[in-house]
Amino acid sequence: MNPAGKSYVCILHEYVQHALKKQPAYTFKEIENAATPYSATVLINGMQYGTGVGSSKKAAKAEAAKATLEVLIPQMKEKILDEAEPGHKGPNHQSDLDLSFFNEIRIEDPRVAELCAKTSEPSPYAILLTCLQRNFGLGDKNVKYELKTLKHQKNEVIMTVGKHTVQVPCKNKRDGKQRAAQAILQALHPHISSWGSLLRLYGSHSLKTVKEKKQEEQQITLLQSKAAVNAPNYAILNKLRQEMLKLRQMREAVQPIGRFIPPDDVGMPSTSGADLNNVDL
Fold first, then answer.
1. pLDDT tens digits along 195-227
2. How many other CB atoms are there within 10 angstroms of residue 265's CB atom?
3. N or C: which end of the chain has fewer CB within 10 A?
4. CA distances for 119 relative to 95, 98, 173, 203, 204, angstroms
5. Is residue 269 assigned to a domain?
6. CATH code at 39?
7. What is the pLDDT of residues 145-199, one digit of tens each?
8. Residue 144 belongs to what domain range?
9. Which domain of life is it from (predicted)?
10. What integer is the mean pLDDT of 107-130?
11. Are 106 and 186 a contacting pair, CB within 8 Å?
């Protein structure tokens, strides 16, 4: 794959189509941020990968594609950035430096839990819960695991999430819980091989909402600094007006459009629950 002269979106589509035999899709949403009002997320085989924000949908899409490339092929990150962004030199974020070490660590490496604890990253089981919540709306109640004692004082943990079941040897239940979570994560992400990629998706650096909230607070602070002495702060008032208009539009969108009155010759179904036992669920 030659990234020279190609956009992030083009590089991603080429890689996913040829290497993974899949077609990437994008979802967009509007966020409460004046500087970057649009957010885009890449979906591959129904799973969320990179997310990006921008001043337009096109810019957000490019950032999402860039973030996805960093997840799928972290070993080629510098080459892609150098080709797509001439003049780029080295990692441009501290988080890139922090996570680059994990690019060489396999998802099912037995040292992962210990390394995460030392670097203040979430444990494999916490990463699994974040993955399930973000992609499927599931929680810890949907994760079933048990410890089995085998011969010769050996232990094994069996974990089941949906249609995926794994069995991993372990020292104890705590160790087995983390290693089984790693195995489930690998099954859910067959296109990813390094733990660094999973941290980019679900680790502490992936929490965009905190950053976005901080940016909004900084915008309000800047507006406050524009106030003149002994005069109304029109910047703050305009911001308040914009937010009130948004709130009004949201409320109007959920107002009922009227009451349905059926014709006299049309019978309505009974509200009684007496026949519920006959429903084939």
1. 999 999 998 877 654 455 566 667 777 777 766
2. 5
3. C
4. 12, 9, 23, 11, 10
5. no
6. 3.30.160.20
7. 999 998 888 899 999 999 999 999 999 999 999 999 999 999 999 999 999 999 9
8. 93-206
9. Eukaryota
10. 95
11. no
Assigned domain for 278 exists: no
Assess whether 43 and 115 both reside in one domain.
no
Neighbouring residues of 28: CB distance < 8 A, sequence distance ≥ 6: 38, 39, 40, 57, 60, 61
CB count within 10 Å of CB 278 equals: 6
User: H-helix or E-strand containing 183?
Assistant: helix 173-188
d(CA 249, CA 151) in angstroms, rounded, equals 66
Q: List residues bridging with 74 in a β-sheet.
A: none
Q: Is residue 23 part of a domain?
A: yes
User: CB under 8 Å to 213, separation ≥6 — which residues?
Assistant: none
Q: How confident is the model at residue 88 (pLDDT cuts 50, 70, 90)?
A: very low
pLDDT at 252 (0 to 100): 59
Nearest to 168 by CA among 184, 152, 153, 179: 179
What's the mean pLDDT in 15-42? 91
Shared domain check, 125 and 46: no
Does residue 242 fall inside a structural domain?
Answer: no
Statement to judge: residues 111 and 202 lie in one domain: yes
Give the H/E segment covering residue 139. none
Collapsing DSSP to helix, strand or coil, 275 comes out as coil
pLDDT at 274: 41
